[in-house]
Each structure stands twice: as C-alpha cells, then as structure tokens.
Amino acid sequence: MKLVLLLFSLSLYGQSTAKIFPVFDQPLAKYISIEQVILHIRTVKAKSASKYGEAVDFYYRKIASTGRKKWIEKLEEFSLDPACPALSRSKINAQIERIRTLQIGEKAPEIHINNFQLSQYIADKPTVLLLFYSPSCFHCTELLVDLIPYSEKSKLPVIAIQIDEEMNPWTFPSHWKMIKADEKVRKEYGVFSTPSLFLIQRKSRQISAIPENLTELKEFEHLF
C-alpha cells in the first residue's frame, strides 16, 4: 500500500505534465495534465459561455483537491475574466490573493484557539511545521504516511491543524500538537484545500518555506 502511495506521489508532484485530471463534460476521455486543463477551458470558453463557467468550476474543484497552489494560480486567467460565469470565481481570487500574501519571509498569522496560542508555542527546534489537513483527504493520507516517520526521525515539531469536524483516525507522534482550525484561521492562511504546509521560525513566526509535499520539505532540512 505504501509503495502504491509513493508511486502516486511521484506521479502527482514530480511532474507538472502528469495526466491526473478528468476531462470536463467528457467522462470517457483520457485524463489530462494541468497544461491541457488550461487549454481545454480556453476551448470551452470559445464555444459556450455557460459551459465556460461550468468548466472553470469543475476544474477548480479537481485542482484544489491536489493541494497544488501553483496550479490554482493558473486559473487566474479565468477568475479575473468579467465574462466568466463560474460560481467559484470569487473563491479562486480569494485563494490566489492569500497564496500571494503569505510568502516566504512574511510573518505567519497568529493562531489562538482555546488554550493554544502559536506565539507561545514551545518546542526544542527553531522551526515548526504547520500542517493543515483533513482526515478524509486522500492527499493528506498520502503525505502523513511518510511525514509521520520522517518527523519522528528528524524530531521536527509539527502542529497538525484539522480544518473540519470529521473523526480523526490518525495517531500522531507525541511531539506533535493537534488543534482544530476555525474559519478565521483558515481564511488568514488561505487554506482552501489540504494538505497545506508552512515551515515557520518558532520565535519570530517568519515563514521559511511553503512546501507542497515531503520532497520539498526535505530541501529545507538545514533549517531544522
């Protein structure tokens, strides 16, 4: 099972040309890549205004489920189009704005939920990983399968932030902190899909990295 997840991960995250998206209005067609998605939306736009909006909504849901922020930004061409009737336009624009607001070097927003406060969080390492996840998210499961043993080996502190009220089947390491995010936190961090990762400096809350998967996280091992 772990091997299957690993192979899927390499396919999804290692190649921007991976053909992982079903085709709008063509259930029997072969899956297409993110580049082909953009081309297909342009084609639909030229043929039908109503279908244009439906296509953007369809692909936005699919792209958001991957957690790839860079792919979400590719939809800006359509979300900023006044002629686009997509219901998700404002949501896409809000997500892109938040993605671009929370950049490396910026200060991560405070999180204060119940008796937890991010600015008062204590850990043995100078950096902390914020992990926004949902128990039912397949891509979260895919990540957690490898992130849990990796964090145990590296001793990287992780604050696991659940974005919903679903039952959590995971048993996290003892050095992880588990909290649930309210709507305010989700909006401030621009979390519209999971998993979402932020590697921050514990004391200053400065964002050191915004990795999209474990491979990218490992590139910043020197920080922790």
Walk me through what this model shows.
The chain has 224 residues and is an alpha/beta fold. It has helices spanning 2-13, 34-47, 49-64, 69-73, 76-79, 89-101, 138-154, 183-188, 214-218, and strands at residues 112-113, 116-117, 127-133, 158-162, 176-180, 196-201, 207-209. The strands form two sheets. It has a five-stranded mixed sheet with strand order 5-4-3-6-7, with no helix packed on it. A two-stranded antiparallel sheet has the order 1-2. Helix 2 (34-47) packs antiparallel against helix 3. Residues 1-15 have low confidence and may be disordered.
Produce a short descriptive summary:
Helix 2 runs antiparallel to helix 3.
Low-confidence stretches: 1-15
The number of distinct β-strands equals: 7
Report the principal-axis shape: elongated
> Quick one: biggest sheet?
5 strands, mixed
Question: What count of helical segments does DSSP give?
Answer: 9
Order of helices and strands: HHHHHHEEEHEEHEEH
Sheet with the most strands: spatial strand order: 5-4-3-6-7
β-strand amount: 5-15%
Report the end-to-end length measured between terminal Cα atoms.
30 Å
Give the % helix: 40-55%
Write down the Rg: 18 Å
Query: What is the SS-derived class?
Result: alpha/beta
- Overall mean confidence score, pLDDT: 90
